[in-house]
Amino acid sequence: MKPLFIANDPSIFREGSGARTRMRAYAEEFGELHILARASRNCIVTDGPLTLHGVLVPKLFAPLVLGNCARALIRKNGIDIVSAQDPFEHGWAALRATKGTPAALHVQAHTDFLSPWFTDPRGVSSGRMRALNRQRVRIADRVLPHADGIRVVSERIKTSIEERYAGKLKTVPVVIPLTVSSTVPEAVPLPEPRFPFSLVTVSRLEAEKRIDDILTALAQIHLRYPGVGLYIIGDGRERERLTRRVRALGLADAVRFLGDRKDAWGLLRSAHGFIQASAYEGYGRTLLEAALARVPIITTDVGIVGEVFTGFRDVLSIPPRDPNGLAAQIMGLVEDSQTRHGIVIHAELAAKAHLESLPPLAAAVKQDLMDTVARKNLGGSGAVIQGT
Question: Which numeric CATH code is attached to 197-356?
Fold first, then answer.
């Protein structure tokens, strides 16, 4: 089997990055793996059994150009299956590339794109992002019914796809969760000056992560609990706006922006609580890391909450876009040491049980791709799976 991934993460071209390491592990499992992605220059990079094909192309024209390049690679390298790392722009490119060829079409869904918050103005503050997300859902509506294989990272995404496309899919989505190392790093001290009660969030600073809601909640409780402070680990397009928001709320002494940190997991171990307020998540790897770090968790009901973690037993969960609820849970965490202790124990047990139940990721991905190719070769791609 010769797979080609159409990737949406340019960090695969950076040696030593998490994405590069993960793709190299896949390549070693498969024996050969080609990856096509936008890059800062046209290039071909060989890393053992992994071959990276970089294409310099403006984002607007990327689906068309990547589709053309993928089609050429199918013919040149005898590619058996093309797997798009999202059902949107890259899914459309993969659909276009495989049409009329023997190659199977495989689509990955790592985002809960059918969550009502994905396109709701209350979930994404940017009008441009809402319009883009609506267009992405329309693209997924065209791509997924043609897919010979669909891989998702959570039961939440699988259920939403099956409900929306009942009677239209060729195959049942396969759930292959992401994995987290069971080796928890040593604690890393949080930067000085430290807060008497330190909350940490680890997130890309993008609108859908709703860091605003955490700041609003912190402002609500700050007069009563001035010792509560927030460390924000991560970076993104919202950084400058959030910095202004911190000043406007009078929280300049209570919030620290730490940027991207490779030691984020170690920093988590030094916190009194982990908090996230995402409007939607596909999975929630950081929740697992916080649980394994034995840090109490406050989170919105997204991703694997309800699937791996049970609200108010393992984590303190609230609906998205509820700063008042976040404030109440922060106060509860500060005031109730018994709750802090109890949910930490339950969350750690839940996380370990979940991870122990998972097969090796690279082997599971390989099997999913092989099954997809087999269905395609057996003519199963013409069948439609009825909704349940």
Answer: 3.40.50.2000
